[in-house]
Amino acid sequence: MITLTxxxxxxxxxxxxxxxxxxxxxxxxxxxxxxxxxxxxxxVALGVMLALIMAxxxxxxxxxxxxxxxxxxxxxxxxLIGLAMGFAMRIVFAAIEMAGEVASLTMxxxxxxxxxxxxxxxxxxxxxxxxxxxxxxxxAVNAHLVLLEALGESFFTLPISASPISxxxxxxxxxxxxxxxxxxxxxxxxIVAALLITNIALGILTRAAPxxxxxxxxxxxxxxxxLLVISIVLPYLGGPxxxxxxxxxxxxxxxxxxxxxxxxxxxxxPRP
Length: 272
Known about the structure:
With 272 residues, the protein is an all-alpha fold. Helix content is 71%, strand content 3%. It is a multi-pass membrane protein.
């Protein structure tokens, strides 16, 4: 007759629950996985499947009762680690969407906004177009699989532990957040530069021919030049976007690594 003690049951539950929490945190925040169009049942099923695959291979979890206060703190910590790793990759898409917003405002398409199901807000037409291009590139280079690989590596660089993570990981997250503005401006710079030259030319033309209706011809010209520059620049965006993906994955790997290097020593936890 097989008998199980409460300690063994708690160990088995914790060995699956805590990795599942980190995995679900990444799925909820990461692009493509956390899209609102994906049903919640599919996300949970994917998380459970990944947890069943990874749980036997990762380091052993601490012997803590999962329904105790210490187990609850570990649960919250694992959730925050997964959310931080997924959000690090989400910043890459936010930078690309910002490039589209800057290009739309420069072209005069700021009024052409649509509901974005990913951010639950409104975004411009150019921003949504670049976001779709980035999503296709994300799948084409198998960045979603590399992100899952980084998630699996995080269980070895930052194992499940009862010791709290240090402030180094949130600092790295805040530093990486500045990439939204720098990368977004760099991606939109060709379009902004071309439209700046166009506006300067229109200004000179207005001074040379004051009777010219600049409001009647200015908008079609800037819109046409903007669309033309986007069609010219689009084939060359593959390299910068792939570089952003690599940087986002490295940032996802750096967050648990930084927390593991600077984390305080683990406090001894009494066994149940």
